[in-house]
């Protein structure tokens, strides 16, 4: 029967691979919400690879959300991507069981989520470099006319030799009109751009927003908005300015601070127009930092990775064409109200803010019956009649 189904199906007749025969499964390295990933030895090439096998049913359900749009499969997209900061996919196909699989370079290292949490020497030394590497990876995505739609630390690995690699192309869509229409709100709640949450038209700027949230978190170990457990809190996320990163890190290079805050603007037109535009000030800041480190101006600068010292702060440069944005006006107003944040302890163990809102409830209610919903956490306890994602790391 299976054979007949396959024979008459419209699915292209890709040769099926018996992965158990071909791969020696050395160990499980990860379980995402949509897949299982193994470290495996490929008997065909002899190399050790990452073998990702997608959950059949969940993948079908995710694909059914794009019915009629002909969304390319994760593997089809992944094999086309060639960039030093995007994990290399060698091959994709179907297992004898009909699951999609990807064979990738195996990245020995850490998840960026771990480094955000640890704030260790690696992070202190390389944070800005990693931010730029991630931006370069997104730039490649955008130049190739894709939107990643799920930029967050969980989908980023950092190798033992300090190179960042973007992984997971499960939610990637082409940057073409049919995929930009209001509708699907797939992504990870805490990193989702307001226009995506509000089901408005999207663009590549949703990746710029998620990238800025990620950069904010890399530097501060916290998300830009307070914990969001109520509708009010999510509305705040959507409508009010996030805490200015410069207030949390007064010694942070203002170019870096401004770059991130502009990436978090509420309206896409107020954000950076392209990821390259956002990368420029970050690269400039890294250059300044490298020069300072090289010249060993002060002892402390040697361990100071984002040009933190006030004495070395470059003058804030604003283009004359910079108009005050909606957020900037809001920030000015809210500054008056704000209590001091100078005593904020960056190392304090902060529970990541949670996003919970009945703004998302229709989606979540749909998710209760919709097995296409991705989550790497056990199902959430309903806290109200309108359930919403409680974990910022949950893909919806
Ligand atoms: N190339 C790789 N090298 C090493 N480990 C990897 C690789 N790809 C994935 N992993 C591991 O497997 C985990 C899950 O991978 P991935 O994010 O691609 O799966 P997913 O099911 O799409 O996840 P989710 O949708 O929940 O984000 C990663 O967090 C990572 O730990």
TrEMBL record:
It comes from the Bacteria. It holds the Pfam family Pkinase. GO terms for molecular function: ATP binding; protein serine/threonine kinase activity. Residues 326-338 have a biased composition (Basic residues). The keyword ATP-binding applies. It is an enzyme of class 2 (transferase). Residues 339-348 have a biased composition (Basic and acidic residues). Keywords: ATP-binding, Kinase, Nucleotide-binding, Transferase. Coiled coil: none annotated. GO terms for cellular component: cytoplasm. Its EC number is 2.7.11.1. ATP binds at residue 52. InterPro entries: Atg1-like, Kinase-like_dom_sf, Prot_kinase_dom, Protein_kinase_ATP_BS. Residues 305-396 are annotated as: Disordered. Residues 358-369 have a biased composition (Polar residues). Residues 23-283 form the Protein kinase domain. This is Serine/threonine-protein kinase PrkC. It comes from Gimesia aquarii. The gene is prkC_6.
